[in-house]
Write a structure and sequence with these properties.
By secondary structure, this protein is mainly alpha-helical. It has one domain. The chain has 5 helices and no strands. Helix 1 crosses helix 4. The N and C termini lie far apart (36 Å).
């Protein structure tokens, strides 16, 4: 099973054994999970991680339709924790985040979103 904290650290280029930023990353990851809960993803009572023992299936079960939650979480955490210096890169990331957010919302509640 894949640790949420470890996978986000890996995508950010932080070694798994380097724990100096763990508290900051956990706070940002939990903020993203709060957003995802508001758009209908994850447990209805909310979800948060405390350390590297929490895994993705705790949040999205084994739902293949919600795999983009991982990329979405990474990009949101990246912007909060270590934003790019270039405004055009930030703008591009924000566009991708918006698209992922829409697609995740549709995947989380497909019946309601059928035309």
């Amino acid at each position: 099973m894949e640790s949420i904290l470890t996978s986000i650290k890996k995508m950010l280029g932080i070694a798994e054994e380097y724990t100096h930023f763990d508290a900051d990353l956990i706070m940002h990851i939990n903020s993203v999970f709060a957003i995802l809960t508001q758009i209908g993803v994850g447990p209805s009572e909310g979800f948060s991680i405390e350390d590297d023992t929490d895994v993705w299936t705790d949040f999205i079960q084994d739902n293949k339709r919600l795999e983009s939650v991982k990329s979405y979480t990474y990009m949101k955490v990246k912007l909060l924790f270590d934003p790019p210096l270039s405004s055009s890169v930030i703008e591009s990331m924000n566009r991708i985040i918006s698209e992922l957010e829409w697609r995740i919302q549709v995947a989380a509640d497909p019946v309601e979103n059928i035309i």
